[in-house]
Amino acid sequence: MKPRITAFAPRRHRGSFASIGHVLLRYAVLIAVAAVFIGPFAWLLSTAMKSGSENIFQYPPQFLPEQPTLRNFGRVFQALPFFSYFINSVFVAVIAVSCNLVFCSLAAYPLARMSFAGKNSIFLVLISTMMLPFQLLMIPLYGIAVALGLNNSFLGLMIPHACTAFGIFLMRQAFLAIPQQLEESARIEGVNRFRIWRHVMLPLVKPALATLAVFTFVGVWGDFLWPLVIMDDQAGFTLPLGVNKLAGAFGKDWRLVAAGAILSIIPTIAVFLFTQRFFVSGALRGAVKG
Amino acid sequence: MMNPPRLLAIFLLATGLSWPALQARPGDVPGKAEIEFWTMQLSPILDDYILSSIAEFEQRNPDVAVKWVDVAWADMERKLLSSVAAGTAPDVANLNPQFSSKLAEFNALEDPTLFLAPEAIAEYNPAVWSANRLNGKHFGIPWYLSASIAIYNRSIFEQAGVSLPDTIEDIPRIGRSVREATGKYTYFPSFDGGEPMENYVLLGGEISNDLPAYGLSGASARKLLRYYAELYASGSIPPSVLIEGHQKAVDLFQSGELAMLLSGMQMLRNIELNAPGLMADIVVRPHPNADEGRTNIAAMNLVVPKQTERPAEAFEFIVFITSPQKQTEMAKRVPVLPSTPRSLENPFFATAGIRDHYETARAHSISQIRHGGVLLPPLARYSRLRAAFILQTQKVMLGEVSVEEGADQLISDWGNISRARHE
């Protein structure tokens, strides 16, 4: 027995070395990828924390601030009505996300689970609209908003986000993944379509709803072009428009711009962290079932 | 997860409750003619000035109300085009001359000479006033001005043992020495604006709307292309000029890697904010070609789109906001110069007893505005002309074509564009 043990021992040793090397390599790659993604954010944070006496454009660049300070974050609040822009953004984002979840899941349900003439054509047309860049739609959309008297209003600002082709697509894929038997059982019990959507289908697609909520929130929160076009009054500005004002025409203080940008992306990170556990499974579900 | 009907009910309730907030804000003031006034990124620094000026105007004109909208510098074109397409263009807009001329090309702007009395027109800098003209019509009123001055990093020149350039033609020679001695670059002629064409004029060329091929001549084109090729070959300019714009020049100068910056005096504030240590090293001088009287004046215009229903009130407001007194007030708050020469008689603009870089820069800018002009007039089909000009310049810099081939192609391209506009 002893020789067999000695014979295996070195092999096991090699195996553990190989396994440690494998893990190290994996972590090295993951750290490198994470650094690529976190790098710009870290640089922004570093700029926001540099004191007024430091050269932002120093060469070679210096990542760590010489005299780290949080003063620039306070200056953002002095330079702008930041809180007011923040409230506007929250208001628009909450209503746009709520509308998108309700309307997209309502529109997706018949496309996934009902049979009617032209169903596939409708779905194709909806999907096709995803290929049109917003820049192309912007002017006609603005024309419609003006005709409806919605320019310079929050309602006009949130309407393009209230129901999206991507949301309908995502929710349709999620509904398709639910076994037919569940719905059939409910129908045998005499439950109508709307109640099936409400009580049977929606609880089963929570991950997809969370995914859609995150995507919509990120889209609405970071939207610059549409608010720029539709909103005239500064009192109605959302954060991207407001933070843009920090880059003044007669002097651009990059510390302030960086601090404003950091403050404005904190809610996006918070929403993602909050919905992370649903988000990954929801995104995968939408990706594999068609 | 919250019950969906409850969620929907809460949503409907929230929407219902917030309905007043969702609605458009009040538009016209009852009993008053409202004019909408768009500016380019003057807020928040000029909030007090603009709002108090509007209040003063409204007091003098009780029947008119002015609504001020401030738009981000980089996004004015998109917002204005959207509003023109939707028929909601502002009554007064603050635009740069090239975009103003693009709108004027489509006859989208009112001619101020039809609304302003000759004595009102006489208040404006004649060189700048006459530059706002395309196809025989004026299209804008000059507001605030800026001149391109030279800001040098003295320590780089001292380290290289060279003097400051007397004209831009000295830059390739000086730039080679700077590069060899310090490894740094001297100049960054950006391609994102009209600088190559302005340099064409600075080197002795002429550009005019009224001449065949816009007046471009073979000899001047060859001189310009040779100049850019020398700049590139001598290492005076970084390779990134081919893909990056004026902002990169500012960044490089602030990092201490560029020896000179040709820009407006407002750039000093940027340097002080972002590279405060550099302020002790800089020297502010007139533009290298200022002695020849061929320096550029950059103007910001106020225009009145033809969609306005109140052109008379709009021009009345423009005359008020661009008056010598209002422009002097503005120049005291931000680093710009007035387009009304009478403003310069104010003691604020006196050049005696200069104390710092800012006052030096203002004194040089005033002198250049008095003697300079708008080097690049408004051009029909400007975007296409600019694209052709930049393409050939870059091809010559990269050695893809010779100076002669580049110049021939450039003249041919400009000739074709010129002929096409008459067809």
Spell out the blueprint of helices and strands:
The complex is a heterodimer of chains A (290) and B (423).
Chain A: H1 2-48, H2 71-79, H3 82-113, H4 119-129, H5 134-147, H6 154-162, H7 165-176, H8 180-188, H9 193-204, H10 206-222, H11 225-230, H12 239-244, E1 247-248, E2 251-252, H13 254-288
Antiparallel strand pairs in A: 1-2
Helix pairs in contact in A: 1-13, 2-13, 3-6, 3-7, 3-10, 4-7, 7-10, 7-13, 8-9, 10-13
Chain B: H1 4-17, H2 19-22, E1 33-40, H3 47-60, E2 64-71, H4 76-85, E3 92-95, H5 97-105, H6 118-121, H7 126-131, E4 133-134, E5 137-138, E6 141-147, E7 149-153, H8 154-160, H9 171-182, H10 195-202, H11 218-233, H12 246-254, E8 260-263, H13 267-274, E9 282-285, E10 297-303, H14 311-321, H15 324-333, E11 337-338, H16 357-371, H17 382-397, H18 403-422
Parallel strand pairs in B: 1-2, 1-3
Antiparallel strand pairs in B: 3-10, 4-5, 6-10, 6-11, 7-8, 7-9
Helix pairs in contact in B: 8-9, 11-17, 11-18, 17-18
Question: What are the key terms here?
Answer:
heterodimer, A: 290 residues, mainly alpha, MetI-like fold, 2 domains, two-stranded antiparallel sheet, 76% helix, flat, B: 423 residues, alpha+beta, D-Maltodextrin-Binding Protein, domain 2, 6-stranded mixed beta sheet, 3-stranded antiparallel beta sheet, 18 helices, globular
